[in-house]
Amino acid sequence: MIKVNKSALIALKLLNEKGYDAFIVGGAVRDILLKQDVYDYDITTNADPNAIKLVFSDYAKYDVGRKHGTINVLIDKDRIDITPYRKEEKYLDHRHPDYVSFDASLKDDLSRRDFTINAMCIDSNLNVIDYFNGIDDLNNKVIRCIGNPKKRFDEDALRILRAIRFKAKLSFSIEEETAKQIHKCKDLLNYISPERKKDELLKILAYKDGFKVINEYIDVFKTFMPFEISKRKINNFSQPLYALSYLLIDKKVNLKALKYSRYEIELINIFINAAKININNDEEFIECLSSIYQKQILNFLNEYHRKDFTDRYNKNKKYMVTINELKIDGDEISSFGYKGKQLGIVKQRLLKLIHQKKIINTNRSLKAYLAKHQVV
Q1: φ, ψ dihedrals at 183, nearest 5°
Q2: Dihedral angle at the C-alpha atoms of 303, 309, 313, 314, nearest 10 degrees?
Q3: Alpha helical stretches, state H, the chain
Q4: How many CA atoms lie within 13 A of 203 on its CB side?
Q5: Do domains 1-140 and 141-225 have the same CATH topology?
Q6: Where along the chain do its domains lie?
Q7: Architecture of domain 1-140
């Protein structure tokens, strides 16, 4: 039995009551038929944007895609995207249509979509409309472009990565001609923004088959990332950034140019450095783990199969201190005659001594050291 979100059904019926056709469409239909959780509902209709606004005049709504006519309607706290049937033409930048027309039929609208499994729709009576044999491909676990794969990828090169992502997510195969054109059209990814490629890559790495699928299409990913997955022994991480860090251990990549955030870059560099740590060097080991990201580092190292860190960590964790965790404050340091910039220098010196296991992080120990030694 098909189960559909109540708010989405309300939207369909409101449009039907005003004489318009309306259907749940796209990935939501695919996931409904696969009995997977659905988080986003899209509706397509023959109502134009102004008509959609009139139908939902009593609901909060937002224009979220003026060029595409998309109206976001809030129904019982659920956000439903409602878009008129449309045709798209002249994809001059291999990503966005240069021309959008709302003079289209349901079949026109579905035919412009990427894959057969994403081109089905459901009406208010829970009937499935399937012009392109998406149900067959869903049952056979196949990802297939609608029509000519080369044309589909030439229109929107991001579909190359989307096909690979769906393969990783669903554990489906990619139809032979579609797969062939993924390899042949890979250089079209140069037209795709770094942000979109980054987002797709991290989504792929979030799936258990991520490494396997990337390795199968490694030539595609090498157009923007220097991966050599075949040389890696570990094939599954719980977090995408753990997986990415693992893949970049021996690589130099300008992640800022690829639009990774400062936070993401910091974490990736921390994980890479942790993976290279000399476990026999206590000071190096302690400094590596003396971080506000200590929990993430330990999780990464555990998944990296560096379980030798566990015993070392337990023996040394009392020395793993960040500067904000020092058991002495500025006023107490000042009482030993240090002022201004000297306070920061003293803190750094004390921290270094703790990491070297020469003193412990207690107020008494730190004060005793300052009473006996001139630090600055």
Answers
A1: -65, -45
A2: 90
A3: 6-17, 27-33, 49-55, 106-111, 134-139, 149-155, 158-170, 176-184, 194-205, 210-216, 218-221, 240-247, 262-275, 282-289, 294-303, 308-316, 330-334, 341-355, 363-372
A4: 16
A5: no
A6: 1-140, 141-225, 323-372
A7: 2-Layer Sandwich (3.30)
Structure token digits, residue 288: 């590596």
Smallest CA-to-CA distance from 368 within 49, 376, 359 is with 359
List Cα–Cα distances, 21 to 17, 315, 369, in angstroms.
Answer: 9, 68, 80
Reported CATH class of domain 141-225: mainly alpha
Cβ-based neighbour number of residue 347 at 10 Å: 20
pTM for this entry: 0.85
24 forms beta bridges with 43, 122
* Cβ contact 143:160 at 8 Å: no
Residue 350 has pLDDT above 90, yes or no: yes
Q: pLDDT tens, 98-146?
A: 556 666 799 989 998 999 999 999 999 999 999 999 999 999 999 999 9
Using the structure block, give the residue that is written with the tokens 């000399």.
278
